[in-house]
Design goal:
The chain has helices at 21-24, 48-54, and strands at 9-12, 31-36, 58-63. The chain is an alpha/beta fold.
Length: 66
């Protein structure tokens, strides 16, 4: 269910822990994550950091104490 018009994606403090490696298996869309490492609602360790291991075309911009 991918939209071919999407050339890149950004997640700004969005929950991402539900995405598995299989979700990214057939994608080549660059995925940027913007997260604060002090977020009390979306845990930093459980959300953006695992995506970097699951999807090689991802980047993370961390906001210290954000």
């Amino acid at each position: 269910m991918r939209d071919p018009r999407i050339a890149a994606a950004i997640s700004m403090a969005g929950p991402t822990s539900m995405f598995t490696a299989d979700f990214f298996a057939d994608s080549d869309v660059p995925f940027m994550l913007i997260f604060g490492d002090g977020d009390v609602i979306i845990p930093y360790a459980a959300n953006p950091t695992p995506i970097l291991e699951k999807y090689s075309n991802s980047n993370l911009a961390s906001l210290h104490n954000g």
